[in-house]
Amino acid sequence: MKYQYDLQIHSDLSDGDWPIERVMFLAKKRGLEGISITDHNTWLWFKKKKKLAQNFGLQYIQGVEISTKLFQTEVHILGYAKNFNIHIIKAGLKKTINGYNQRARQMIKKLREAKITNISYRDVKKNKGTNLAITKYDIARAIAPQLNVSPRQAQKLLNTGGVAYVPYGKWAMTPMVAIHLVQRAGGVAVLAHPGETHDKLIKKFGDKEGDKKFNTLLNKLIENRLNGIEIYSPKNNTVVKKFCLKIARRYSLVVTGGSDWHGEKHHPELKMGDGGLTVRLFQKLLTAIKENAR
Ligand SMILES: [Zn+2]
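That is the input. Now the predicted structure with zinc ion docked in place:
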């Protein structure tokens, strides 16, 4: 394992396999020094996560990953803080959480219409805590036993190209708005796994136009005072990694890293610590967080 600090990890508060306690236990077992649990679109348990991490002897940074949309493509913005202003994050994410749940209803309707399942939105919702967004993985987990496949397999029905796929609606904020939200709440805003975003743009618009859109995206984010880029991610290919590192240096952006671990069932290909930061870069990130805190 190359990194001691893994700053992109997910629990079952969003679309990970495990509750936060088990996530912490596994992080410690893996030999990590510090982590951030960056669940998608939730402000829940920022403090509880931090306290639990301390109990496990792990350094902790509060984190969140916000789902946004630009060029009809999903772009993820990470927020990191010492102590987020929860009221601001909560108000800022309301539309996204509602949008997600509306999308979940539409997906379930499509599944039912295709006679793939008879589960209802309520069946899925009851397995998820209140104030949490229903993710594709939540639906996949609910229908998997009926289909006699793994949740990961079931999720293919809900992914791009699947019969029950529903894209983000008008409710999705732009990544620029997400940057402002994170910063207003006292955090630093980081572009998550640029390699994944680049891949999506290439797939949608082709090599040349996809590249152009990726550059436009970076420019727009930098104009809107993006604080950092997630460089050390297993989702970044060498070309994107090098290019983004150059951009980070040119604009004095902070560099972050994380594995995007979701558990061995949801994403068996991603292991904790396969992305992340060394002690030296982690200290730099802490300094940036301190300097940007309000
Ligand atoms: Zn992401």
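Strands lie at 5-9, 34-37, 59-60, 62-70, 73-81, 188-191, 228-232, 254-257.
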